Amino acid sequence: MKFAKLALLAGILACALAPARAAEPIRIGVVGPFTGGSAPMGISMLRGIEIAADEINEAGGVLGRKLVLVERDDQANNDRGAQIAEELAAKHAVDAAVGFVNTGVALAAIPYFEDARIPLILSVTTGSPLTQQFAQPEYAENYIFRVSCSTALEVQKIVEIVKARGYRKIAILADTTSYGQVGRQDLIRTLAADGIAPVSNEKFNIGDRDMTEQLARARESGADVVLTYGIGPELAAIANGRAKLGWAVPMIGSWTLSMSNFIDAAGPNGEGAIMPQTFIEQGDTPKRATFIRKFHAAYKVVRMNSPPSAAQGYDSLYLLAAAIKQAGAVDGPKIRVALDDLKGSIEGVVQVYDHPFSPANHEAVSAANVVYGIVKGGRVVKLVPEPQAAQAR
Asked: Do 297 and 218 reside in the same domain of the chain?
């Protein structure tokens, strides 16, 4: 009798504990540079993700479970990024992940998530090869997805505006990181398809603050436009060096020209810089207006440090949550299958996502989602009107 009572008590306790176990939170890894020169992108991304997590949790979570963010600062360091990925993925410390800003860091980290069969949505990093490392048909399962604009697509938009404005003598200034060099290679290849070869091709390092030598050589080459691939502080050095030389050629570059540490450090010398963008901090739809209002209120700011990073971070988490809900389980392979065939429409800040991925395509952003921004009055606004060549897409 005593044993029967004990068994009954154990059964009651098991039943009581079962809902608690079922309600354990879903752990989402968030990796990015939250310190250093890339921090405006990383922190903006994190804040967008935090806003999305709060909204999802306030609405009841996913599968009745709350989302918990497991945040890690990779410091834009490749080795640290790999170490973090091993900690989170190989040890199964998270159920899925979003994030990454720097191409080199993502390249070092991605294999750990792939090997552990943990879905990863790249929120900000743009390097073209990132979603192709484990792509079909060579690999049966690809766990790497992206909601940011790939470098290849970004370069396509840069070249479109170069052609529309009639520039033929191109100077390229790119940093020596994986991001800068992938961008440089994509630029050269895309320009070559239109019979254009750069007249100047210069490099610079992270931390360089004087670009006058590179810019002087570019001016001597007769360049009529400067195309850039880098991040905020060094891009500001280019803008300031150009002004120092009195060389008033246009500056067009990658989306990072929208970073606050470019705009603030360049000041008047950054005015007129043009870049492709997935999101500009203007509330031209109810969803965007609400997102901007929430962001400003939550973080006590009047301008996002990196608007595309914030918007893409937000959208990444919503797509991942939709996939987990569709999968009906927190299981990596099932989530991957769901991401490859998401049902219904998911309203994001960058776009309304309608079947954004497929087994053959893990890029959510297309040319239709990319607009041009221009620095005016210390912030990025839409370039109006857009170049005629860019409208025909």
From this structure: no
